[in-house]
Each structure stands twice: as C-alpha cells, then as structure tokens.
Specification:
Blueprint (H helix, E strand, L loop, with lengths): L2 H11 L7 H16 L3 H29 L4 H12 L16 H16 L6 H5 L7 H29 L9 E2 L7 E5 L2 E5 L8 H7 L13 E7 L10 E10 L5 E5 L2 E2 L12 E2 L3 E4 L4 H11 L3 H33 L4 H20 L8 H42 L9
Antiparallel strand pairs: 1-9, 2-3, 3-7, 4-5, 4-8, 4-9, 5-6
C-alpha cells in the first residue's frame, strides 16, 4: 500500500507538466521492474545511490530557501510549539481554514508514522538482509532512517511551507464585485455559479511563470473559493472550501465546474446558510504540489523541477524497497528453493511491476480516498506488529545494552564488522 502514495505524489508534483497519468505508470513500471527483477543486490545498489542523492539535493535547495526567509523562522518555530502543544488553535487566514489541536495532532501522528515506518515491522525485512557480526549495529543504523527522513527532511519541508507563506497564501485571482457570483440552495445542496475566470494577479503569474497575455489558468486545474458554513469540529471555524475544476465554458473560455456543499441544519433544525467569504479564487495544491509551490514562491521554477525530481526518486526508491519486503513474504510462504518457489517469486515480481502501472489509472480519485487506504494499511500493520514489539522489545533492549557495554569496554576490534 505504500506505493499508492508514491504514485499519487508523482502525479500531483507533475501538475505543471500535465502528462498522461498512465504514461507515467508505464514509465514507472519499466524503471521499477528493471530493478526488482535483478534481485536484492541490484535493489541495494540502486537505493544506495538514489537515497543520498535525493536527500542531499532536496536539503541543499531547502536550506537556500530557508535562508532567503530567515527572518520568519523564529516566529514560525514559536507557533509550531504553541499550537503543537495545545496552547491554542491556529486561526484561519488566507488559504488556511483553521485547525484544532486534536486535528493537527492526528495528522501529525499519521504523517510521522507513515514517513518513518516506525512500529510497522517493515524496515527490519531490509536490515535483516545485512551481513554483520553484531545485529545491534544494524539496529542502530536502522534508527538513523527515521531521524533523517522524519526529523530532518520533513521538518525542513514544514519550515519551507510555513516560511514562504504557502500555507496561508492570498487569493490568486478575484471576481469583480459586480460579477454574477452566487450561492443558491437547490434541493439538499448549495450550488455555486461563477462567470468566466479572471486573470491571475501579477504575483501569482510571477510565481507560476505564466506567459504574458494568458490568464494563468489551465484546463483541469483544481481551484477553490471560501465560504461561511457550519462550524467544523476539525478546523474549529465555520469556513469551508468550495472546490472546483477548471473547464472550457460554452464559448470556449475558461470557467469552473464547482462541487456542491451539502445542506446542514443547526441544533434547532434551521438550515445553516452558506455565504462566500470573498470573491477570491485559490489554486488547490494537494500533497507534494504545495511543497513545489512553496519553493516557487522564493525561487520561481525551482519547485516545479526540484519537487518533481525528488518525488520521482523518493517514490522509486520506496517502490523497489517495498517490492523486496513483499518478495521475502512470498519466499517465507513458498520456501527459498524449488520450482514452486521460483514460479511464485517470478509471478510476484511481474505482478508487482504491472500493478505499479495500474495504480495510475485513477481508481483513487480524491485525497480523502487515498488517505483512507493508506491509513487502513498503516493501521493493519501497526495492529499486527505492536504486540510483537511488546513481546520481543525487552530482549532487543538487553542485546542493545550488552552491545553498548562491550563497546565501552573496548571488546571490539577496530574496523571489525
């Protein structure tokens, strides 16, 4: 299930290129298949080159952007601790519709677990393949992974999004005050109607590197407007997004096909009115595309290329690693040797390669569906593995303390494995 977010991240990051998604899947399948068919040695060789390169490239670019926004860092760090420790709820502003302490904690835990693989029992499959005389050493090496990808890379990403103002950015365009913009109640839903899309403002055009004389919008862009509606328990505010997709209008001009907002009633049974906060229009940047936009706000064009490359490398390295995890499961079931085992492993590798391409067809259409499936898979692994950690955790800690004791006493030869 970890491959689904990887493929999704690539598609979202490449929003500026608008490639055919299945073509992306075919290319991914060819790359991943050529690696995993070569077995663990090729997987290890490729991963050992991709991971340091992508981390180094991403962190260097991230540090440059943070230095450009260094004056904003102290206040941001204070806000992270203030709202992260529950000393208040972050108020709505710009593209940010608010968030309660509980909602922020829930997403923080989910993303941290997803990023680090902590407690899932997956990473040990790879580290168990390492050849060393002291297993504890490999365990210590394994602990470096969550530190780098979660505490370092994810922290840099968060600081970039916050420091550049991508999280609470202003509207990229606005309908005129006298434009026929209306929210009407029809049946059990509120419907938004708007005229032809206005041009993006100059700041948005500069960030997005829009050509002169164009509106700045493209077909299938995901956009949203803000509306006052029922108060949400997640955000703590009564502000909601009305999302839509840029389409061709009747006369060929660009317009928006808006989603509806369901009818809701208050405690007294009265219909909760829905009204627009403003006539502003925002581009929706889901997933990795928000990070790309954050880079572009400091260095226009950087995010479009850097985040696409980073997403490709992160996703490919994840896919080839997880293919090995699954393959070890197949070997555990069918054995290491024999015709049945060879057939099972070969079938698994081919099926895995095909499914990489199939995953881009579009069975999962929304971020909510993607989150549901990844959370389900993550939860299932935690439920299965945490009891094992409770049973074998004390044994692992005894081995760790014995190793540290030997290390302090100088019982290991220098340069010994």
């Amino acid at each position: 299930y970890f491959d689904i977010p990887g493929v999704s991240g690539i598609e979202k990051a490449e929003n500026g290129f608008n490639p055919e998604t299945f073509a992306i899947g075919i290319l991914l399948a060819i790359i991943v298949g050529s690696v995993i068919i070569g077995g663990i040695k090729r997987i290890g060789s490729v991963a050992s080159k991709l991971v340091p390169f992508m981390c180094g490239l991403y962190l260097i670019a991230g540090i440059v952007v943070l230095l450009m926004n260094i004056s904003a860092i102290p206040a941001i760090i204070m806000d992270i601790f203030k709202y992260g420790l529950g000393f208040g709820d972050a108020s709505a502003g710009g593209a940010f519709i608010g968030g309660t302490f509980g909602y922020a904690m829930m997403w923080g835990i989910k993303r941290a677990l997803f990023s680090s693989e902590a407690g899932q029992g997956s990473a040990p499959v790879a580290h168990a393949a390492a050849k060393c005389k002291e297993p504890v050493r490999e365990g210590i090496v394994a602990g470096i992974g969550p530190f780098v990808d979660t505490l370092v890379v994810c922290t840099v990403t968060a600081l970039i999004i916050l420091a550049t103002g991508a999280w609470n950015r202003g509207a990229e365009a606005s309908f005129a005050d006298d434009a026929p913009v209306a929210l009407t109640l029809d049946g059990d839903a509120w419907h938004l109607s708007t005229p032809v899309l206005p041009h993006k403002n100059e700041e948005a055009k500069k960030i997005n590197q829009v050509e002169e004389g164009t509106t700045g919008w493209s077909l299938n862009d995901s956009v949203f407007m803000m509306a006052h509606a029922n108060t949400s328990e997640d955000t703590g505010t009564n502000i909601q997004r009305i999302e839509g997709t840029v389409v061709n209008g009747d006369a060929g001009e660009l317009a928006v096909k808006w989603k509806t907002i369901g009818l809701e009633e208050d405690e007294d049974g009265n219909t909760v009115p829905v009204t627009l906060v403003s006539n502003g229009i925002w581009t929706n940047y889901p997933g990795a595309s928000l990070t790309a936009h954050a880079f572009d706000r400091s260095i226009p064009g950087l995010g479009k290329w850097l985040v696409v490359i980073a997403c490709w490398l992160f996703a490919i390295s994840t896919m080839i690693s997880w293919s090995y995890y699954g393959e070890q499961g197949v070997i555990y079931i069918f054995g290491k040797e024999g015709a049945v085992s060879v057939f099972a492993v070969t079938f698994y590798r081919l099926a895995y390669t095909v499914l990489v391409a199939v995953s881009t067809i579009g069975f999962i259409e929304t971020d909510a569906e993607l989150d549901m499936w990844t959370t389900l898979g993550l939860g299932a692994m935690l439920v299965a593995n945490i009891p094992i950690m409770w049973v074998y955790g004390p044994k692992a800690m005894r081995a760790y303390h014995e190793y540290i004791g030997k290390l302090k006493r100088g019982e290991f030869k220098q340069n010994s494995e």
